[in-house]
Automatic annotation (TrEMBL):
Main location: nucleus
Claim: Membrane is one of the keywords in the record: no
Domain of life: Eukaryota
Cellular-component GO terms for this entry: nucleus
Record bears the keyword Coiled coil: no
GO MF annotation, one: DNA translocase activity
PROSITE patterns: HELICASE_ATP_BIND_1, HELICASE_CTER
Protein name: DNA repair and recombination protein RAD54B
Gene3D superfamilies per the UniProt record, alphabetical: P-loop containing nucleotide triphosphate hydrolases (3.40.50.300), SWI2/SNF2 ATPases, N-terminal domain (1.20.120.850), Tandem AAA-ATPase domain (3.40.50.10810)
SUPFAM superfamilies: P-loop containing nucleoside triphosphate hydrolases (SSF52540)
Domain Helicase C-terminal: start-end pairs: 595-756
Domain Helicase ATP-binding: 259-426
Function: Involved in DNA repair and mitotic recombination. May play an active role in recombination processes in concert with other members of the RAD52 epistasis group.
Length: 856
């Protein structure tokens, strides 16, 4: 179901023809619109009848007639010859055989007639008028026998929509509205009701976004008071800003939380890729539901709870202000100085924004507040139903639950279950039945040994699971906003390792610890320590030096493997080596970085750089570089107090800020942050998990970015960094669970073969990644492999082929990389002034431009 976008201004009279909920109210509205007059009674040939009449039918017709039962909703008034009649109430007309019974809405008979002609009975239809037992009636609609038998037509006046206002009755005069079964009954009340029941915003202005109306079933369930249906219209102030996919998203969320997509289910997962504006979609929903509703316009919700990572609490406040200003809605954000008690005491606030950590601390108070809507931002963390945060949130009685996540969620079927079960408890049955019905057959589908039958079953179950959950999960990819974004120029820079790095690297690979790893027994293997040491070395040898020194000083006897790894390494460092005054030239990447910063500063003095590392110690080095060159910088890492985070981000994004660099620890604050103040992003190191890097890269190339975005990924040529990169982009990395922010190297299983590969240094190669691509070029000129078809290998998803949509934020595949422009550092015709400056230290480049058309 789509929201109705109305682009033309229709007449007010039409506004109510589509809004039928409670028949009696609809009728009253029609009357008010059309101004009924008794002059038209009898129009259409169904003149006023008085019973009994001559019986002229044949025997066959009689039998047929006697078995005929029809039900109509009608309005009635006392018979009179007055010109201006006043309808007095709703009723149900039962036509059985040749007789009529008229019942009021409490089921009492209020009129009877028998002996009508077959032809006359046949003609009865909407808009006709009749005379029964001294009452004049007008047929308003047909009632199904089901609605009559269930008695629903009495409670709800369940007739079909009344005649459209452009019908023949449009000239009727209405002097007094009939009595509705629902209050109010007095003239004044009804008039008030008409006024109160108007949509909050004009549904007929061009580009208005009108949300779908609930169907009859929903009305029966949720409109017990028979309030009139009122159009729910998104505030034009907001609509004005919405992207098309956001309008669709709001309609989707509305239908979910209203229980219009699935009976008795009020949860949703909005899993749009990063930067698609999930926040704005939720804000629009909250603002709408807080002021409006389909039944009599009554607001659907009063209070909303938003739970979000600490670093985003203030971002929510900011976004509310950005889209709604500060007057429309009052937001309370919980922090050290603003406790939940304050929210409870005040009647002022309707939205509470709290971090997951604070939620746990304030759970008892929160449980006592009645929240009508719960939004869990970056909600993939609820994928484990055993963790405290999940159990805490489950314990809240709020039924309308929304999870927001930019991370794909179908990769692990058990985690998927936890998320689904959180938003719509029980929708997939119990965990054990879910396993039997869905998980096992779907997992079987991927087994090479699966029989045809098993494959078919697995596919069917996957399809069914997708269909079922697709009712309340929405995921759109970055493509939908690409056209609003500036170009993105992504470069992978393979940086030549420094001489000291090569020497240390070789020594590490020759260590006892590494040799032990390669002997085959992976139990208790120190491979993670070895990998860690190599990665540190790639960032800068001084980091390795610090670790060695640290180990030397520690008196504990555990960690012998680490000691054996470091054996003899100190001798490789100069005797007077001081890690505090590290030298740039000792790290290939650092040299490239420092040149890159210099050229950006020089050529784009007004642009800013986001510099990302996964390690705090590395960030310290990068910070020292900033100091060394006098670059103003801001820093956000795990140590940054949550209360200060948004301020730091805002400050950096402000055009008045003098900061040139934003130092970001991706693990601490990658998710959800908007760093559009920066248009260059440098990933200094690489993570095993592509999702972490993608998260970081998405911070700058997002809505609101004004400049072309440059993303640089630095890798040390021939080293473990290249291997990790290959793993990220190879099929192996796509085998499901790796594309998940919480997965780290500890979760990765390595075979001895893989370790052998990891622990090899390729000293003579310009780029082992390029070597692996089996590309025929020699890196002499800009090369793009066009011989391959465009390869759209999507992120592997356990739900099978049904989910495999094109996905712009998926980890790159090897075949795609081959299609990137690539060339060696010796290539002479570099046109990119940034790359030109660093090429001395870069052995190979890969480059790709997205949105080149809009390149400015
Ligand atoms: N319609 C719009 N017009 C202009 N800017 C927009 C629009 N929608 C969202 N934005 C801006 O885009 C940025 C990204 O939005 P938001 O933070 O909501 O993304 P998200 O979907 O939550 O991404 P993530 O998964 O990274 O958290 C914000 O700065 C937001 O203000
Ligand atoms: Mg977000």
């Amino acid at each position: 179901m789509k929201g109705r976008h109305r682009d033309s201004h229709l007449t007010a009279g039409n506004s109510f023809t589509s809004t039928h909920c409670c028949l009696s109210y609809c009728i009253s509205e029609h009357r008010s619109m059309r101004e009924l007059s008794l002059e038209t009674l009898g129009v259409g040939g169904a003149s006023v009848h008085s019973a009994p009449k001559e019986i002229t039918e044949s025997k066959g017709q009689e039998e047929e007639l006697d078995s005929l039962v029809k039900y109509f909703s009608v309005v009635w008034c006392k018979a009179s010859k007055k010109k201006h009649k006043k309808w007095e109430g709703d009723a149900v007309l039962i036509v059985k055989g040749r007789s009529f019974i008229l019942k009021d809405l409490e089921g009492k008979d209020i009129g009877k007639g028998i002996g009508y002609k077959f032809k006359e009975l046949e003609k009865i239809e909407e808009g006709h008028t009749l005379m029964i037992g001294g009452k004049e009636i007008e047929i308003i609609g047909i009632i199904s026998s089901e609605d009559f038998n269930s008695g629903r037509c009495f409670q709800f006046g369940g007739g079909s929509p009344a005649v459209p206002c452009s019908s023949q009755t449009s000239s009727k005069c209405f002097s007094k509205p009939f009595r509705s079964i629902c209050k109010p009954s007095s003239k004044e009340n009804i008039r008030d009701a008409f006024q109160n029941y108007k949509p909050r915003h004009d549904p007929y202005t061009p580009n208005s976004l009108v949300l779908p109306q609930p169907d009859k079933n929903h009305q029966r369930m949720f409109n017990k008071n028979c309030l009139p249906l009122v159009d729910v219209v998104i505030d034009p102030h907001v609509v004005h800003h919405l992207r098309p996919h956001q309008k669709e998203g709001i309609v989707f969320l509305y239908e979910c939380v209203m229980g219009m997509r699935m009976n008795g289910r009020y949860g949703a997962i909005l899993a749009d890729e990063m930067g698609l504006g999930k926040t704005l979609q939720c804000i629009s929903l909250i603002w709408t539901l807080q002021c409006q509703g389909p039944y009599g316009g009554k607001p659907v919700i009063k209070k909303t709870l938003i739970v979000t990572p600490g670093s985003l609490v203030n971002n929510w406040r900011k976004e509310f202000k950005k889209w709604l200003g500060s007057e429309r809605i009052k937001i309370f954000t919980v922090d050290q100085d603003h406790k939940v008690e304050e929210f409870i005491k005040s009647v002022f606030y309707s939205v509470l924004v709290i971090s997951y950590e604070m939620l746990l601390r304030s759970l008892d108070q929160i449980k006592n507040i009645k929240f009508d809507l719960l939004i869990c931002d970056e909600g993939h963390r609820l994928k484990n139903s055993a963790i405290k945060t999940t159990t805490a949130l489950i314990s809240l009685s709020c039924e309308k639950r929304i999870i927001l996540t930019g991370t794909p969620i179908q990769n692990d079927l058990q985690e998927f279950f936890a998320l689904i079960d959180f938003v719509n408890p029980g929708v997939l049955g119990s965990l054990s039945s879910y396993r039997k019905i869905y998980e096992e057959p779907i997992i079987m589908l991927r087994e090479p040994s699966a029989s045809e039958e098993e494959k078919e079953l697995g596919e069917r179950r996957a399809a069914e699971l997708t269909r079922l959950t697709g009712l309340f999960i929405l995921r759109r990819t970055q493509e939908v906003i690409n056209k609003y974004l500036p170009p993105k120029i992504e470069s992978v820079l393979f940086c030549r390792p420094a001489a000291l790095q090569i020497e240390l690297y070789k020594k590490l690979l020759n260590s006892q610890a590494v040799r032990f790893c390669l002997q085959g027994s992976l139990e208790n293997s120190p491979h993670l320590i070895c990998i860690g040491a190599l990665k540190k070395l790639c960032n800068h040898p001084c980091l390795l030096f610090n670790s060695i020194k640290g180990k030397e000083c520690s008196s504990t006897c555990d960690g012998n493997e680490e000691k054996s790894l470091y054996e003899g390494l100190l001798n490789v460092f100069p005797a007077d080596y001081n890690p505090l005054v590290f030298i740039e030239k000792e790290s290939g990447k650092l040299q490239v970085l420092s040149k890159l910063l210099a050229v950006i500063h020089e050529l784009r003095p007004t642009e800013k750089v986001v510099l990302v590392s996964h390690y705090t110690q590395t960030l310290n080095i990068l910070q020292d570089i900033c100091k060394r060159y006098g670059y103003a910088y801001a820093r956000l890492d795990g140590q940054t107090p949550i209360t200060q985070r948004q301020q730091i981000v805002d400050n950096f994004n402000s055009k008045y800020s003098s900061d040139f660099i934003f130092l970001l620890s991706s693990k601490a604050g990658g998710v959800g942050l908007n760093l559009i103040g920066g248009s260059h992003l440098i990933l200094y190191d690489i993570d095993w998990n592509p999702a972490t890097d993608i998260q970081a890269m998405s911070r700058v190339w997002r809505d609101g970015q004004k400049h072309a975005v440059h993303i640089y990924r630095l890798l040390t040529t021939g080293t473990i960094e290249e291997k990790i990169y290959q793993r990220q982009i190879s099929k192996q990395a796509l085998s499901g669970a790796v594309v998940d922010l919480t997965k780290t190297s500890e979760h990765i299983q390595f075979s001895v073969e893989e370790l052998k590969n990891l622990f090899t240094l390729h000293e003579s190669s310009h780029c082992i990644t390029h070597d692996l691509l089996a590309c025929e070029c020699t890196g002499e000129k800009d090369h793009t492999d066009d011989s391959l078809e465009k390869f759209a290998l999507s992120r592997h998803c356990q739900l099978g082929p049904h989910q495999q949509k094109c996905n712009s934020l998926k980890p790159l595949s090897m075949s795609q990389l081959k299609q990137w422009k690539h060339f060696s550092g010796d290539h002479l015709n570099l046109t990119d002034p940034f790359l030109e400056r660093i090429r001395e230290n870069v052995s190979f480049f890969f480059q790709n431009i997205t949105n080149q058309a809009s390149c400015t």
